[in-house]
Automatic annotation (TrEMBL):
PROSITE patterns cross-referenced by the UniProt entry: GST_CTER (PS50405)
Top-level division of the source organism's lineage: Eukaryota
Signal peptide: none
Gene3D superfamilies per the UniProt record, alphabetical: 3.40.30.110
Protein name: GST C-terminal domain-containing protein
Species of the source: Trichoderma asperellum (Filamentous fungus)
Domain GST C-terminal: 89-248
Origin organism lineage: Eukaryota, Fungi, Dikarya, Ascomycota, Pezizomycotina
Length: 339
């Protein structure tokens, strides 16, 4: 895959975005950023014709990628001249993938997000509650957050304990015993890094370098590696929404157009073919933000649709199959795609 300009739409406090920022830094991939507000509306994203509301969004050339679980593998395929971060042996690949599943699907990050300190300045803004209600699909309140805190702490303790007593127990520096942090470290560390760095999130008598020395030392080591990489690479260029959109619109495709797997059970059930109008959205958070476009390709890993930017230029939006729903779109009328 030829290297094209990389642009990351994100905001600095987003823990998911850090997964991509850290990956880019550790790999030394040059990129620009388009910094976003921490809640909707996001006109810069709308300018791309993208309805997907989650952060980060990544573009490589004229291709736009939703979800870090697709973005990181796509970056891994890019810039082949730079050493990759991904695992190489089947066993290591399994650890990498299982860590992603444990932290994201297994709920460690979801539980960590319930530990936001109740005195956070953001909590003084009623718009934030409305916005995150839309994001999660459920009303979001401080009372509810307070109530679920003890359960969340119990789940997070299981996360710390797992790393302390298994993967880090033999004193290794990095999860796959590599010389430098690898993708498996990113997959494992990000949620614990975030929650342990959030003042007031974790009670000091239950979570500390004394209680989990190996985990805290790993988090510190990881942060030092990222800080050093960022210092080596220099700061990314910041683009306005208009500048970023115009770079994307003028780029060539990052990937060759692929085909639709005709035997895929969803393709069969929905009667889809290349060019069918489809709607896609995530299945967990941000579900009400559907992207509608022409189906370009679909395989076991990703679905690609063609959408139009606000300037009427064609771009391709890629989403992973895992965690996303796709249906045929027959227009905004009775019987239209219900996602
Ligand atoms: N599975 C997605 C999750 C992304 C996600 O939930 N991002 C958070 C920010 S950390 C978000 O979009 N929050 C709501 C918002 O910022 O609008 C991914 O891996 O990229």
């Amino acid at each position: 895959m030829a290297a094209k300009e990389v642009i990351l739409y994100h905001y600095p406090h987003s823990p998911y975005a850090r997964r991509a920022v850290w990956y880019l830094a550790l790999r030394g991939i040059p990129y620009s950023q388009c910094v976003q507000p921490n809640m909707m509306p996001r006109p810069d994203v709308a300018r791309l014709g993208v309805s997907y509301r989650r952060i980060p969004i990544l573009s490589i050339g004229r291709d736009i990628y939703a979800d870090t679980r697709l973005q990181l593998p796509k970056l891994e395929e890019s810039y082949p001249e730079l050493p990759r971060l991904g695992a190489t042996t089947p066993e290591q690949k399994a650890i990498e993938r299982l860590l992603s599943a444990f932290i994201i699907d297994g709920g460690i990050f979801r539980e960590a997000a319930k530990l936001l300190p109740l005195d956070l300045p953001l909590f003084k803004d009623p718009n934030y509650f409305k916005d995150r209600g839309d994001f999660s699909g459920k009303p979001f309140s401080l009372e509810a957050l307070k109530k679920i805190r003890p359960d969340a702490l119990a789940e997070i303790a299981l996360g710390f304990e797992l790393f302390e007593t298994t993967l880090l127990a033999d004193g290794r520096e990095w999860i796959l015993k590599t010389e430098k942090p690898s993708l498996a470290d990113i997959e494992g560390v990000w949620a614990l890094h975030w929650v342990s760095g959030l003042k007031g999130a974790l009670p000091a008598d239950r979570f500390s370098p004394e209680k989990y020395p190996l985990v805290y030392a790993w988090i510190k080591r990881f942060q030092e590696a990222v800080t050093a990489a960022k210092a080596r690479n220099g700061k990314p260029k910041s683009l306005s929404g208009e500048e970023a959109a115009s770079v994307i619109e003028k780029s060539s495709w990052n990937e060759k157009e692929k085909t639709v797997d005709e035997g895929d059970p969803l393709v069969v059930a929905e009667g889809l073919k290349k060019g069918s109008m489809v709607a896609i959205c995530p299945t967990d958070t941000g579900r009400s933000h559907k992207d509608i476009g022409k189906l370009v390709s679909l395989d076991k890993d990703e679905v690609v649709i063609e959408i139009k930017t606000a300037e009427g230029e064609t771009v391709r939006l890629h989403a992973p199959r895992h965690g996303f729903k796709l249906r045929k779109f027959d227009g905004e009328k009775k019987g239209a795609a219900k996602l």
